Amino acid sequence: MHTLIILAGVALFLIPAFLFVIHIALMIWAFRDASERYQDSRVAWIITAVLFWFPILGIIVYMFVRKERPQPPHSFTNQEQYI
Known about the structure:
Elements: H1 2-37, H2 41-53, H3 55-65, H4 78-81
Helix pairs in contact: 1-2, 2-3
């Protein structure tokens, strides 16, 4: 019985700790993604703040409204340059 109480206590600690780590990782990913997609860094900070307060709803909304990733300049291969 004593072991069961200890395991329950460990689970009650580990589950919120795991969710906290996922929350922080989600905020870091969204900040980096928004920094690449938007020229203004304030947008990335606003998105991060929204995800801090509303993580589930915030990531769903962000996935639908984010801009397309900017394409790198086209690099020609050696054959395409001479055509």
